Amino acid sequence: MKLIFERSVPGRRCYILPKCDVPFEDIPDDMKRQKALRLPELSEVDISRHYTTLNKQVFGVNCGFYPLGSCTMKYNPAVHEEIVGFPGFQAIHPLQPDHTVQGCLKAIELLKVRLCELLGMDSMTFQPAAGAHGEFTGILLIKAYLRDHGGEARDKIIVPDSAHGTNPATANMCGYKVVNIPSAPDGSVDLDALRAAVGPDTAGLMLTNPNTLGMFDKNILEITNIVHEAGGLCYYDGANMNAIMGTVRPGDMGFDVIHLNLHKTFSTPHGGGGPGSGAVGVKEILVDYLPGKDTVKENGEFVLKEPPKSIGSVRSFNGNFLVYLRALAYVLSLGGKGLHEASQNAVLNANYLRVLLKPHCRTSNEGICMHEFVLTIEDLHKKYGVSASDIAKGMLDCGVHPPTMYFPLIVDEALMFEPTETETKEVLDESAEAIIGLLKQAATDPEALHKAPVTTPVGRPDEVTAARSPIIRYMDFDA
Q1: Does the pTM of the predicted model rise above 0.85?
Q2: According to the model, what pLDDT value does residue 294 have?
Q3: Which one, 16, 67, 72, 370, has least CB within 10 Å?
Q4: Please, what are the domains in the chain?
């Protein structure tokens, strides 16, 4: 497919501007561009066809099954888009006086109250723009708290090897040393390793729960107790909250701070680079350190006030307002019972698909999973030379988006599936049949899988060259 610059024809236009009805003033030479701005020149129909063709080459959740593990790529109800389009929400400015945006501030406060109830937390901030940004904010809150309570010498964050990869990166960015501890044979945190790791230098623990193996840690209360007894705080990576809403609350498990990916669990847009929302909930001990401004009711009106010991803003204004407004619409439309049912269905779908696939391929762990599970293609790889990547790319030819590949790192030739609660039994049955067909093909025709995909607009690229020498702009561009 040609790039839009390659379709450009000099002099072609798609607009008609009216004659200028104000006096013309020339721009001083020192403020002018030295070269004319290089933009593609096309007609309106050319532009429409170009982007329509691009759209057809993109696989989204509205195209087919999208079991991208740990990413919760579920269908988002269209009614939420209508709600956020209301002028009273959309046609506002973050610098407006508080008394002119009372409805918006009430929406923020309402979402904060509902999420705190769901999480077992005391307050929240919606400033962070995404999940990893929420992690960063949460660890900065822990750092500020420890600084005020004589914990400057605490310079280590403990991270289990089954955590999301952003966890150790976040701890490092916040200036902490990362202590990695192994999983026990059953995939849970190794308690002996945790006890050996904690001490007077422990700032806290970052735990993904359910973890990347799709397991809820059975020792969760003991884990947080070990860290608290050592003087550290407990951080909950809530990216997998989709599995436990209405069943258990991180605050009741002993966690002091949690981030949520509202663009995952709470049905707001996901993918394409953003925007997102990494809301952070905290226990009372951390409320005074929250970033930005919090909604407070004074004299019958909502106002925005900075907490007394705030770590400062972590981004502009109050975060991506329309994103977490969609989350509010989701929470209110489902209610507590509906949110619980959504998580139950997510767990049910994951286990249903796991059981269908298990006779044909090993799973990383035995027993019931939560919202996701991990297959290992290690046996097929050793016997027939077919890798997890081969199976994933073969899925593209079956009209199914690949799952997460080669993660978590503690599982060889891993494929992580997350069906989500919005998929039907019929879709899961059809997809399982297609995946089972690929697993069988590994033994009968492995060479065909090495060439997959063959039906997509782009075949199998040279991934090493693409990673090391990416072409990120039009090569003939000169402006």
Answers
A1: yes
A2: 93
A3: 16
A4: 78-334 (3.40.640.10), 336-467 (3.90.1150.10)
